[in-house]
From TrEMBL, chain A:
Gene3D superfamilies: MetI-like (1.10.3720.10). Keywords: Amino-acid transport, Cell membrane, Membrane, Plasmid, Transmembrane, Transmembrane helix, Transport. It comes from the Bacteria. CDD domains: TM_PBP2. This is Amino-acid ABC transporter permease protein y4tG. GO terms for biological process: amino acid transport. GO terms for molecular function: transmembrane transporter activity. Pfam families: BPD_transp_1. Signal peptide: none annotated.
UniProtKB/TrEMBL annotation, chain B:
Belongs to the ABC transporter superfamily. One of its GO terms (molecular function) is ATP hydrolysis activity. Residues 6-251 form the ABC transporter domain. It is found in: Cell membrane. Its main location: membrane. GO terms for cellular component: plasma membrane. Coiled coil: none annotated. This is Amino-acid ABC transporter ATP-binding protein y4tH. It is a peripheral membrane protein. It comes from Aminobacter aminovorans.
């Protein structure tokens, strides 16, 4: 029994049907961790991208260094760091929060590059037109550059959404009960790993296919020339 | 001398080792329509880009409306201009680009109203009314809701002109406004520019290869060569009886 659901070991099919609700509980955790991690990656990534393209070297350099550091260290190391080191300094977060945060931080290094490339792809002619019209730097960024960068950014961000989803099982090492961890616990208790793990594979396939399709739909409906604000 | 709205005073501009403007002296009077002609790479665009504050200078002083453009007078000395000073000076000028540089993600209307609303602080309604007048002026009254990619090149450039005019500049800069257009679309844009030239307040600086048009609308034509004004005069003087050999060669090459 797990989460109040009993399993039925009479045959593999019954077993699979009986543990599906349990795995769906784990899948819901996986989805939440993905969404939260992705959100952190999007916000923190934008922040890093803006810092990296700052004109002052004293801002741009540290931001680049941080990005490089994040990208070149394993997710697991960052996760352990947040989970075991932060509490020593009085910052105690639930395992789920810590895990989602670690995912977000890791992927912010990648998303910041996506933003940067998207922003740089908006031509100099656009910035010059904005300058000739006396638009402020802030207005140029938010109303001219970002709206044109969005359609270029969406497909790459979609790929990272799927990647984050597939990295969620790493959180099991800090006790987060995401889908794979749940499947492993079922296996430990029933000595049948094949059925739960196969189900996890199938459910993952469904999730990633749905996510990819969603991104593709978004991509086709976004106007290629960009999306003005307001 | 005193009624010069634009004055270049020994202006030097370099790109690395390349000296593009070599102690250029150049003046434009208020309301004057000046055409700039000359071979590729002679620094024509650079002059406009310096005026539009898209490009800094390496020596000399540029005056606009009696004030230094790239410098500020503080405590008795000329210091490099602050962004606030540049913003104030920039409001006197407008630019029409060779490649139009419209904002592709905005409708024609929004292209024209964006800066008046955000920079001049106009209300949306008022900005739209003015945009409609300007669209009427450039003959595109019925295109307000379209996006730039739905327009022909000639129409796009006319939107570019309306967009620049919406900021009420006293000086309008045109950098080869018809060079990117198919030949059959050049006329409609020149007609609009010609109509603007009849307005006496507006100072116009036009870089062009359209010699017939330059001759028609200009008060004065300047022939640029290697970062210097090699020869200048009224269109009649320059086109019918150029005194410099270089001018003659250039005109001969381009008119053939
Ligand atoms: N950003 C830049 N970096 C380096 N060199 C530049 C830059 N901009 C212009 N130049 C060079 O400066 C010179 C003058 O350029 P400019 O664009 O003013 O010429 P132009 O007279 O407008 O020529 P064209 O008729 O081809 O437009 C050219 O040799 C050009 O290659
Ligand atoms: Mg040029």
């Amino acid at each position: 029994m797990l989460f109040g659901f009993e399993w039925d070991l009479t045959n593999p099919l019954n077993f699979a049907i009986s543990i599906l609700p349990i795995l769906l509980v784990g899948m819901w955790v996986t989805i939440q961790a993905t969404v939260l991690g992705f959100f952190v990656a999007l916000v923190l990534g934008l922040f890093l991208a803006v810092l990296k393209s700052a004109r002052s070297r004293f801002i741009a350099w540290p931001a680049r260094l941080v990005t490089e550091f994040i990208r070149d260290t394993p997710l697991l190391v960052q996760l352990f760091f947040l989970y075991y080191v932060l509490p020593e300094y009085g910052i105690v977060l639930p395992a789920f929060m810590t895990g989602a945060l670690a995912l977000g931080i890791q992927y912010s290094a990648y998303t910041s590059e996506v933003y940067r490339a998207g922003i740089e792809a908006v031509g100099r002619d656009q910035r010059e037109a904005a300058r000739a019209l006396n638009l402020s730097a802030a207005n140029t960024f938010t109303h001219i550059v970002v709206p044109q960068a969005v359609p270029r950014i969406v497909p790459a961000m979609g790929n990272y959404l799927v990647s984050i989803m597939k990295d969620v099982p790493v959180l099991s090492v800090v006790t987060v009960l995401e889908m794979l961890n749940v499947a492993k616990i079922i296996g430990d208790r029933t000595f049948d790993y094949l059925v739960p793990l196969s189900l996890v594979g199938c459910l993952y396939l469904v999730m990633t296919l749905v996510a990819s399709a969603g991104v593709r739909v978004l991509d086709t409906y976004l106007p290629k020339q960009g999306l003005p604000l307001k | 001398m005193t009624d010069a709205i634009i004055r270049f005073d020994k202006v030097v501009k370099r790109f690395g080792d390349l000296t593009v403007l070599d102690e250029l002296d150049f003046e434009v009077k208020k309301g004057e329509k000046v055409s700039i002609i000359g071979p590729s790479g002679s620094g024509k665009s650079t002059v406009l880009r310096i005026l539009m504050t898209l490009e800094g200078i390496d020596g000399g002083v540029v005056h606009v409306d009696g004030e230094p453009l790239w410098h500020e007078l503080r405590e008795g000395s000329l210091l490099p201009a602050s962004e606030a000073h540049l913003r104030r000076m920039r409001s006197k000028l407008g630019m029409v680009f060779q490649q139009f540089n419209l904002f592709p993600h905005m409708t024609v209307m929004r292209n024209i109203t964006e800066a008046p609303v955000k920079v001049l602080g106009l209300g949306k309604k008022e900005a739209q009314l003015r945009a409609e007048e300007l669209l009427d002026l450039v003959g595109l009254a019925d295109q307000a809701k379209k996006f730039p990619h739905q327009l022909s090149g000639g129409q796009q450039q006319r939107v570019g002109i309306a967009r620049a005019l919406a900021m009420r500049p006293s000086i309008l800069l045109f950098d080869e406004p018809t060079s990117a257009l198919d030949p059959e679309l050049v006329g409609e844009v020149l007609t609009v520019i010609g109509r603007l030239a009849e307005e006496h307040d507006l100072t116009m600086l036009l870089v062009t290869h359209e010699m017939r048009f330059a001759r028609e609308i200009s008060d004065r034509v300047c022939f640029f060569d290697r970062g210097q004004i090699r020869e200048e005069g009224t269109p009649d003087e320059l086109f019918t009886d150029p005194s410099e050999e270089r001018t003659r060669e250039f005109l001969k090459a381009i008119l053939d």
